[in-house]
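Following up on my earlier message about nicotinamide-adenine-dinucleotide. Here are the inputs again, as you asked, copied directly from the submission form:
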Amino acid sequence: MSYKVKDIGLAAAGRRMMEWAESHMPVLAEIRREFSRTKPLRGITIGAALHTEAKTGVLVRTLLAGGGKVAITSCNPLSTKDEVAAALAREGVHVYAWRGESTKEYYSNLNSVLDFRPQILIDDGADLITMIHTRRRELLDEVIGASEETTTGVNRLRIMAEEGTLKFPVIAVNDSPSKRFFDNRFGTAESTFQAITGMTNTLIAGKHLVVVGYGFVGRGIASRAKGLGALVAVVETDPVKALEAAMDGFQVTSMAEASRWGEIFITATGGYKVIRAEHMKQMRDGAILCNSGHFNVEIDLEGLRRMAVSSREVIEDVREFKLKNGRRIYLLAEGRLVNLAGKRSLGHPMEIMDMSFALQALSVVYLAKVGRGLAPRVYEVPAEIDRRVAELKLRSMGIKLERQTKEQMEYSASWSFGT
Ligand SMILES: NC(=O)c1ccc[n+]([C@@H]2O[C@H](COP(=O)([O-])OP(=O)(O)OC[C@H]3O[C@@H](n4cnc5c(N)ncnc54)[C@H](O)[C@@H]3O)[C@@H](O)[C@H]2O)c1
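Thanks, got it. Here's what our run produced:
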């Protein structure tokens, strides 16, 4: 068996972590029971780059139950839970992941997953898919297709598809309503505040909190911040989103103005250097900066380091930068996605990942069935899969869905309204 983890002796603890997650993921449990009977992934090798933590472990177990073979690495050098990596390795998964990988190790681990010649890829951020298109092109022909978990990954893949560079079909799991409306919005918001308060022990109520980006993630964060009693300002580049934020009751302003006002800053744009040195120079003493977007490029870290006269880790995952002007700035989790990269960050709640990973599992099966006939483009998750996941979730929550009457269906399907 081939794996590379921090300490295989942590497997028993990892198994318990996965069991806890499993007992809160009823949709995936239902799919797993079905997979155990039907084995829809028999003979399929799946290569995954996902945050290797407990909920992902439950997805991996579901794929194994379906008859698939799985090789996995993390999609972020800091987001692996070493206990879970060890437990999966013990269960026969090819795992190449540990918390604190160097950049070189991160790419070497992606390569190790590709060495298993996967036919289906599950990616989060598109690093695995871009690697096979650049450094491992000899493997391209064997790939049936891939599914992508997050906005940043889907954006990259759409650019590849438009350029004609993409060589296999990709399902944009991120864009399906059963993912984006819940995972990006509620999942990221709750886990972001769990991480910030867990790392800093700071009070949110009464604070000036700046959310940069008012997309699905930013909207959720701003609304939770308001619920926790913060005074919230939003920074946006899109006029429609800015207007939406204003009508949702937030102050909307420029980054330059927000810099002077804010005490806590959270980036959620998927963009590049949205908080730069010129902004950090204006910030008040003790400002806290963190990122909930996918990559660690939203806060200009080089700019911050250049401006600083000294830096030290004050407490775990909290780095203090002392600036020439005497003020201190605190950066959480190295500017990596704060809800997953911190030592004690837990990622999205289990009930949320239940839906996101149910979509992943069903999308993988869909690819196994029809992927060979699809052109190399980015596809939506089929509407029946989206609906099925939502219905299973509702059922697990004991919530009843109203059904249309025959008469209502006829009315909705007509243009003449009986005239
Ligand atoms: N931390 C997590 O667990 C997690 C979960 C889901 C998504 N994500 C990531 O979060 C990021 C945002 O995802 P989303 O689904 O909200 O995307 P989105 O496209 O819905 O929203 C991004 C918003 O940022 C705005 N924006 C872009 N550049 C900006 C700038 N310079 N200043 C201010 N606003 C700017 C855009 O106009 C847009 O409204 C992505 O990187 C995504 O991959 C992270």
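One observation from looking it over: The pocket of nicotinamide-adenine-dinucleotide is lined by residues 150-152, 184, 188, 212-218, 235-238, 241, 268-271, 274, 292-294, 337, 339-340 (CB under 6 Å). Hope that helps, and feel free to reply on this thread.
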